[in-house]
Sequence to fold (438 residues):
Amino acid sequence: MKRTVSTLGVAALAIVLLMVAGRSRTFGAAVEDSPAVQVKIDNFVFSPNPLTVPVGSTIRWTNQDDIPHNVVSDDKSFKSKALDTDETFTYTFTKPGTYTYFCSIHPKMTGKVIVQ
Amino acid sequence: MSGKAKDEILHDHNHDGIDRRGFLKCMAWAGTGAFCVMQGGVLKSYSLSGLSGLTAKEMKGELSFVQISDSHMGFNKPANTDVAGTLKAAIDKINALPAQPGFILHTGDITHLSKPEEFDGVDQLLKGASAKDVFYVPGEHDVIGDDGKQYLERYGENAKGAGWYSFDQKGVHFIGLVNVMNLKAGGLGSLGQEQLEWMEGDVKHLSKSTPIVVFAHIPLWSVYPEWGWGTDDSAQALGYLKKFGSVTVLNGHIHQTMQKVEGNITFHTAASTAFPQPKPGSAPSPGPMKVPAEQLKSLLGIRDVNYVQGKHALAVIDSTLE
Fold:
């Protein structure tokens, strides 16, 4: 019984801490996190392409076609599932380099991200 | 150009009753339904309205089958919000054919997203077809996310590799090829070395008089590489078929009928049962073409193929779902 009470106490404290953390994160978001860079997939084309971003950037691909596409890096370092209409895939680039990718369903669709 | 002059044969170089203009006319009819007879690698064409002049014997063969393609079960966008309904209409059309086909070939994109319930939906509808045997090859939409594992579990029992196989029916040798796996960035459809070697061995011992039917999802001829409508290593595969007098290649993928003759090989692409796609280069992309609802069924269809033994003739009839 005692154990249950203490567990509850810990849980309550954790919830409070999470709420505080959540608040500070919300307030600090504009400073700490830059929003994802958008790449749209439209008419079987990735755009913008090529795309240059700073290290640490997150890119969000959004499929605007009526046909599914995916985003697969040539070296398989990242690979999305098939994105149906309006579905998105995000990936954060933590190392500088040139990343080439394509849609493995429609391999004529290719793209490049340059991370500096 | 109008009236009778349109149907005159102007350049009958091969004395086979067809000139280039006649062949192009066959291509033009294909979208709305055409009856084509292939003899020695050359097509003879008739409009569907002219079929009454043909005898039943000319229309029927020793072997007949139907090709359907690109059912895209699961697709629900404006280009066709009822792909199950149009597949059902295609099956009704097959069941209403005057001569019942021996079997059905499905040239891929059975599903839209490779979901189990999409495969199940097509299987269920095809149980309503009079022809019970269905032979499949996968489209790129059937191998999404699992490199074709589910496709192989469902349809690959007698297949090799990624799902290729061959079989014989009444003297005709059928070869089902897979060109939607391991696609490379910037490339087209791909057969791959393992499959090519298998194919070379598969046809090596056949007599050159054996009629050959090859079927695969992505066209095995260069329809429009800018849109990925071709197969990188198809020339090698077709090279193995040079010795045969009669080779017919059936593909899907481009959601419209198209035909081409090259030497001993006649190429056909089939209409989709789900939605049409634009003519090569006529739109910014090969995405689904939205047409007024009342036109949709005129752009979808099935293909009925008849083989007459001894004549080396495969008669190909494309009909719309209307």
